[in-house]
């Protein structure tokens, strides 16, 4: 369950900068919220002041005429507090949700622009956690949490000043305790922040593995691996629980420390205040007033223990989001690249070499020209570099050496979106979304009409199976197209590519999931798909590649032979060896060992009429 985002941790200053940027973008709402909070907190001083007047003036001096005005003032202050609290919650609650919404969109937009190699080494569940869960943590930065901390602190300072005025000796003693408490909180938050960070990371990893396990449930059940997956998940959850327990211990410790501090402060007030009343240096009203004000000082401290923990968690989430944003997007340099013009489709490789890992080349010195409108087939043993070459054409990777030219322009200097918008692909494992058949075909061109979708589907022979569904093209295919067979998914993918009308077409084992009868049925669709387009084909079956304008034979990351099918057979080299090996394999599939069959007597290179011939892998 390893996570591969960016291993170098983000410094605290970076997280603070991210937080400041968030606050700055929402400063208007936050300032208005702070005004509402301060009005509400100012109204909160009415009750302590009224208590002092009630004891020292109304009761002591029998000023009952002041009772009704004081009650009205307290009621008005209460209503004002209620109104400002409601306005604050609505104003900053909406601001927080909007900020979360915007951050999720920003992070998702960045993630979708990352290079494929990033997704190859990062679980999808980890990325989902980054986008959805980590963004949630900023609620307390741009919501009520930060404003309550700031407003509460200002209220506490005002209350503290009044406390000094009422009894400076007692307040000084309490202040020393508050400073000690503040130091302990700062230490605790410093320890808690990396724990929250690790907790979020582990949660993402566990979520990622869970997503993999559920996505591959058929393989899990096929190999009776339920207990193993349960053990893996349980191990991750147990580790997560250990971190949660540790953070809960820290948070609970802060809460207990707060309660203990308030208890000690209350005891000190009772002791010192009681003696002051007995000595005549403090009235009963002053004592009650002092007690209320102490509460106004203590409340922000309690809030800091709670909200401070949440903000610490928010910083940990910002750390992880910042890590993700530091990964360079594949279109990062598009501003300096030229817009991609309408393509004719001529592709040229000039001495191209590529390696995923330094010192381990996958392709070496690859040079060829594919004129516009021609079909180039790629054959070779597994690991020879065919898929990597296709990835370079689709700009999923960049060559380490050499250049790829499209219509005479260096592909490295063309904007990606414009280029890929003129590509089409039918891959061996084509992904379908959990929607209808029509929606999956229209994914290539969402603005296409239903008639255009069905026309593409008919050419790809999708009608052959769609008519069997009660809902026809509105049939839901399930997650990854699980409700369709492999051949049906492949035909939907071919229809999707037809609808895209690409200038450069990639066919990577496009008929691998089809039986011989189904493949024969869609050959006309494939021919229509390739007509007038530059096509690159990886396929086993000769019915797909023998009509190619040129076949490139790759071995060990190099082009070892090139030519048409007949030329390569006549050359009697590597292609012929691969071809004959596969021919023998196909013969053994159709004829029992030791049994004569007319088709086995045919010369290699001339496939039997009653079955499709095969090309090298």
Largest sheet: 6 strands, mixed
Number of helices: 22
Query: Architecture of the domain at 12-325, according to CATH?
Result: Up-down Bundle
Broad structural category: alpha/beta
Distance between the termini: 33 Å
Share of residues in helices: 55-70%
Cα-based radius of gyration, to the nearest Å: 36 Å
CATH class wording of the domain at 12-325: Mainly Alpha
- For the largest beta sheet, what order do the strands appear in spatially? 6-7-8-3-9-10
How big a fraction of the residues is strand?
5-15%
Overall pLDDT metric: 76
Which spans have pLDDT < 50 for at least 5 consecutive residues?
A: 1-12, 590-617
Count all strands and give the number: 10
Give the name of the CATH superfamily of the domain at 12-325: ABC transporter type 1, transmembrane domain
**Which topology of the domain at 12-325 does CATH recognise?**
ABC transporter transmembrane region fold
The general outline is elongated
Characteristic terms for this protein:
617 residues, ABC transporter transmembrane region fold, elongated
